[in-house]
## 1
Amino acid sequence: MKKLITLLLILSFGFIQAQDNFIHYLDESNFKKGIQKGVVVVEFNAPFNLSNSFPDWKQLEHCKYYRVCIEGSPILKKRYKIFSYPTIVVFHNGYVERKYKGNIMLELEITTEKLQKSIDELYLDKF
């Protein structure tokens, strides 16, 4: 019985770890709650441009990372003035702090290091 419980704990821990590898999406119904607390990075993108999504999102620390499909969220697209894809918006406690837009080739020019620096500046504000 002890072995079974140990095995179940190990498997459940692995499942929880694996969930972190999936992108979480926000839409108009859960957006406000998703950006409310702490540093949150939101990538707005369109289905036709998913190949140009920010590739290193798993490497970002001290933040939550979400994506928004603009086709299913026209109100968010309008509210945050998303005109180029992808666009990354960095929120801190629900407020827009930084915005990085895709270029004419529909690619982001922001590096992981620069984005992490912006996140760290906002994260350290709480200390």
Note: The beta strands are 24-26, 39-45, 64-69, 87-92, 95-101.
## 2
Amino acid sequence: MKPRIGWTAKLQKKLSPKDAHYSGGLVAGAKILEFFGDAATQLCLKETAGKNEGLFRAYKEVEFLKPVYAGDTVEVSARIIRIGNTSRTMKFVAYKKVESKKVLVCQAEGTVVVCIDSA
């Protein structure tokens, strides 16, 4: 399957009390980055028909915009924006629901390396 710019992966996770790292139930931003990695893995597995998860190389930029807490439901999306020989640059966004609205809590851009079997 040939990768396409614009491919997306989405996931939704409810943060548990075990995810809280700080007082008041505050969850560390690293948890959102973990979810971004999970979404990137979904895209790599789609491209390689389930054979390769890829390896995160680097984030170009990460912005934590709002705090997240235990009990929040976070929706994460990853989208391929550039394709190299073995690299895929992706844009990531994370939202939490506040009442009936989605609030942007984090956005990032990062690069994943996928080992493509040439056979």
Note: The beta strands are 8-14, 26-27, 55-64, 68-69, 73-83, 87-98, 101-113.
